[in-house]
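To the team - adenosine-5'-triphosphate complex, inputs and output below.
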Amino acid sequence: MTQMLNFKDVELYYDHVYALKGVSIELNEGETVALIGANGAGKSSILRAITGLRPIHAGEIHYMGDRLDGMSAAEIVRKGIAMVPEGRRVFPYMSVKDNLLMGAFTRTDKADIQRTLESVLERFPRLKERYGQQAGTLSGGEQQMMVIGRALMAKPRLLLLDEPSLGIAPKLVQDIARAIVAISRDEGVSVLLVEQNSRMALSISNRAYAMSTGSVALSGNSKDLMGDDRIKAAYLGGDL
Amino acid sequence: MEQIIANGLYLGAQYALIALGLTLIFSLMNVLNFAHGQMYVLGGFVTYTIVAQFGLPFIVGLFASAIVLAVVGALIEKFLFAPVIRKSKREESTMLLAAGIAFFLDAVILLVFGEKQRGVPKIVNGVLNWDFRIIMPYDRILIGVLAIAMIAGFILFMQYTKAGRAMRALAQDRMAAELMGVDVKRYSMIGFALGAMLAGLVGGLLVTITGINLGMGGPTSIKAFMMIMIGGAGVISGAIAGGFILGMMESIGLTVLAAYGDITYLVIFASLMVFLAIRPQGLMGKPWG
Amino acid sequence: MSPILQVKGVTKRFGGLTANNDISFDVAEGEILSVIGPNGAGKSTLFKLIASFLKTTSGEVLFRGQRISNLAPHKVARMGVVRTFQETTIFRSMTVRENIIVAHHLRSKASLLGFFLGTSQARADEAEFGASADDIIDFLGMSAIRDELASNLPQGHLRALGMAIGLATNPTVLLLDEPFAGMNHDETMRMVSLVRRLRDERGVTVLLVEHDMPAVMKISDRIVVINFGEKIAEGTPAEIQSNEKVIEAYLGSEDAAIGM
Amino acid sequence: MKAKLLGLGAFLITVFVIVPWLIAISGRWDFYYTLTSVALLSIASAGVWLTFYIGRINIGQGAYALAGGYVSAILITKAGFSFWATLPLAGLFCAGLSVLIGLPILRLRGVYFAMVTLVLTEVGRLSALALPVTNGAKGITSIPLPGEVSVFGLTLIPDFATLENPKLAFYLVAVLLMVICYAALYRIVNSRLGHLCRSLQQNEELSASIGVNTAYLRVLAYSISSFFGGIAGAMFVAISQSIYPSSFQVADSVNFMLNCFLGGLGYVFGPMLGTLMLYFGWDLLFTTGRFQLLIYSSLLILLMLFLPNGVLSLFERKGVRK
Amino acid sequence: ENPVLKIGFVGVTSGPAAAWGISNQRSMETRAAWLNELGGYEIDGQKYDIQIVAFDDQKDPKRAIAGMEKMAQEGIHYVVGPNVDDGAAAVRPVAEQNGIMYFPYAFPKELYTAPASNAVLGMVANYQSGPAIYKHLMENEGVQKVAFVAANESDPLSQRDGGVEAAKALGLEVVSDSVTYQVDTTDFTPVLLPVIQTQPDLLVLSGVSPANAPQLIRSARELGYEGLISTETAQDATVLQEGAGELANGFISVGGASTPELASDAMREFVDRYTKMFGEYNDESNTKVYALEYILETIKANPAAMTDVEAFKTTMDTFEAPNPYMVGDAKLTYVGTSSFGQKRQVSVPLVVNVFKDGAFETLFVAQVD
Ligand SMILES: Nc1ncnc2c1ncn2[C@@H]1O[C@H](COP(=O)(O)OP(=O)(O)OP(=O)(O)O)[C@@H](O)[C@H]1O
Ligand SMILES: Nc1ncnc2c1ncn2[C@@H]1O[C@H](COP(=O)(O)OP(=O)(O)OP(=O)(O)O)[C@@H](O)[C@H]1O
Ligand SMILES: [Mg+2]
Ligand SMILES: [Mg+2]
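Output:
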């Protein structure tokens, strides 16, 4: 397995709050890696650092032989990294179609874009039904599917997902989880998944990192972690 | 009656074009560009200089206005608005910057082009007189048609091109747009340049009819504010609607209220305030106004 | 015992869309009642109607037998019915403590003029709010972020702060809209026990909307299920969990492959 | 606390003692009027700042200054009031007017409110032109100077017409008003009222949910703001002894707003400093002749570029906490 | 080195109304430079260099007061300006307290009527020129019906009211006097439509600014109006030519002394020097050359007036000097007795012009008393 992403000793702070205090994570091609951890542990910050939304203050980020830190978000997207941000962030006054097309913004081959569009619509048939509707009027679950679809429109090699289950009804969370599995399986896309629903995250990932206040507390094989007592206590709970 | 509508349409077309630029800039950067009127005046003076001073054809002057203003707009965005927006805590602060730029352009225009009213010769002669029901000089008709064509062109650009889509996305969610690979800095600059260019184009168009003078900047900005307020700030269709509505209101108001003279504008303004009190987001405004 | 809150045939239409259709249920004093349902079912709308942030199209909401629907929202809050927001809604450029202190507004005995003049009553109020805010901070375990600017907080803390703001108003009925969203299991369970304590120690009646089923099942005395704006079920957690209609519309059946 | 009291003392001594003394020894008598203007305009700006504080961009203060001016002028010339009586009445009239106007328009937010108030300034001017009581386009002129105020024969305020140096008298009155207004503003901001205003500025819905009567608070703040505008306008009428529909116009409203930005929206004394810099700056640049506006606007732009959060943000502390 | 005599100017030289003050200030500066070039202006055997101290009041009465204070500070006793009614009224207290004579271009009668005594009207007021023009047109063109339009601002509205009164007094029928427009109007067709429909013989553009005049004329003509158009303010020929072209032919306005029939060599030299100094002449300056001339000549006539405006006032009653800008034996004197009850107006020829193919021709010349 070849290494795809190497996130090394990264430090990052906001105005005056330290969010990442020397975090290292790795991700191999084709893998699904989960990031779990308490509120404010820095999970979203890792994703922001990877996509260049936030500058890092120390450390390095390598992706397929390129160094990402210092690049602009636009450049990083062009390298094949797509992100579904926290809180969905749809373009509320654009149609579903235009939202999806925005996902393919960096691509130029029209016919190829059309093919991707069709495959996305096939994967999320609900979007096909709402094709011309303004995205802001979609329900929460539909919006979540749409932004995942939008990210897929970039034909990414690495997909970053920030809490896709947030505020979504259980049944839809299941649909989304299945979609993630399918995307990784069918298209060979690597996935970095931030989730609060740790049980779900560990079930559908190969490896996982558990974060606590700005650093990695535990990492390893998802199956092993699922059985780990510390994880059980902190993230899974015995009593479901 | 026909005359009133014709006047309203002509006014509306030019107003809508002014409001479009303002609303574009507002939607992209959340900046209320107080200097919009001054940009319009600058556009007028550029066309004047090219046509009246250098004796070149009108169309050259119009293009020159567009280009000069696009460049000015781009520079202003890159070196002034972008850094200030990045650094300031409250986005309203850009209003001071915009006002400073308005003063600055006023000063430059005064020093470069002087204090006098300027105009260029009519580009088309003759007056359409339809049985005294509609009297409309041909040059006005031409300018009105050109303005409408530009509005249509602008809408098509925003709706169907990649750059247009990128700008719309940018206006709705900056961060998400960035994640789609949109170079937000570049497109903000392009958007601002486009907005400024529209202002310059109107200036260039109207210099053939109303002429231009340095005093027109401030009032033009205020009128443009009113239009985007009627239609809904940051919404393209709203700006167009607002422009035409204000045009019609003026045309009708001036005729109907002529007998009461001094209060025409008082009535227009007051009804605007009442309208907004009832419909706080304007006609087509989005909640984020 | 008569119910503290009665929702009576409440209907809300937005243009052509019926977000709530003839919904009725009662809430007993000291009860924890959850409202669940698919996204867009109309749960948040219902909360807004109860707290009178929206006007009902028809129907009414009674608090202790008194009509509260369609009053000004601050009046409803004054009567003790307080809502938190689904979006993490806080005062962004105040610190956590300031947020909570401001939220004590309803408890002030001095008038605004009194505060302006700095009367002794006003100073006493201020001192009391400060102390009470610290209390709430400790109660919710937020002392580490006491003086943090609210805009710097991550999702999870924002939720906690939202709840703290709700608490500060000293509510009789507290409406919590997705209070556990964005929290992991551990944190969720802590919040669950907090809500319990709130009810047990302070006698607050709690209504909540939540998609986190384990938490809902654990915390609720009763559950109301809404789908497409209509109430489709009402009952104890056990009843709801086995209700076919609810499973079909909302819960989905268990799937080991994805851990749910 | 001690530092604050010291600062206050130093400020009072400066404006009431040192400034007149410096003017006396330098012979720059023209500064009296400049500083009087600064004091009065900063009162109006303080009002605008207060509306900023509840999250509203107010470009309509000129309308209230104009209304205040007219109330004073009309009461003096048509009803024979003493100027000193008209001063609070002008403020109260504007406060009352602003309640009527504010009730509907304060529901607007963001640029919508800003633009409506901009239009309001224009409505003010047009009304003054159209109304009979304001004497329309001809304005009201030849208004007598403020007269004497005495209680039981004891002269509290002398008749300004008999004064040797009315400039100094106007200056002292204006500065005194300014001190009172800013003291009130400071108290508002630092009392619960201010916290509530701030909550309104940041999130009105949430504010309502914690039981704040947002509509009332908005109107209250707006009427205090307009009160400030009204008395500033009335004072100007006393100085110029005349008023026209164009005495306060859109440019003034915009300037009031700019004063707030320049000083800093986050600081109570921001508008005062902003007014001083903007107004005095223009005056000082008067020697640059035809480049005055160019230099003035360039300085404005530079200031904004380097201190976008206002001049007072210069004194803020910064640092990274681990 | 000559001692310096400072003369002030307080007016608007930036923003929308910049044109008014700039033409004013520039004509003063042209004349001052000219005099200084000749070795200075001689008063009581002493040559003085004339220095113009200008203050931009931005058309804000509050600023105008500050400007007047500045003038007082500079020890100046003679000031030209302000350009508008509100400014002129606002500076009155300052001028009176500091012993300053000022020459506003504003028409309110209170400024010039006792007890006011420090203001001197620097031009012909519309209530003086208007009747003369209407009378002339009544007698020579058979005008019977008049319509008025004005901008919705203090000065133009006051001028309109004055005009209407004068027209009625002359027995003319006023068919429309309530239509007003905003100064920022870009299309005057809707404004003029109802006016034209009243079919006047004469359309008076009261207090029209040079910027609006060509557009109004153009709109009126394009709407098919064939009657006469006039105004009582000074206009600029180039602006009219550029803005309305031949449609402006026949437009009647008030001019100064540069019309060929009247202009002396000195006037022509003045125009030359102005053009050289500032690149382009502004015909509005015609009406504005006089104030400075009057101030200097009056001081020359009574050197005590240099620092004492009371001496100036006394001299005004009897003052007389040759008018350098006009051919013939025209005189500089103070007038105004019939309008204000005291001599508080400069006597300038009331020159009424007609625009023809890019230049003004003199229609008639009258005098104001
Ligand atoms: N824009 C910001 N400004 C200042 N501080 C921030 C900002 N965003 C995040 N932080 C701080 O950085 C830290 C990490 O935040 P981050 O959003 O990465 O957490 P997270 O693990 O994603 O939490 P959650 O699960 O609650 O979303 C937190 O302490 C937070 O307070
Ligand atoms: N102000 C409004 N105008 C128009 N439609 C609205 C408005 N508010 C809500 N709706 C619509 O009403 C329906 C119910 O929305 P509501 O927010 O109550 O759903 P919800 O049950 O809280 O969903 P979620 O679980 O996703 O938060 C949705 O279809 C929504 O789009
Ligand atoms: Mg996060
Ligand atoms: Mg909801």
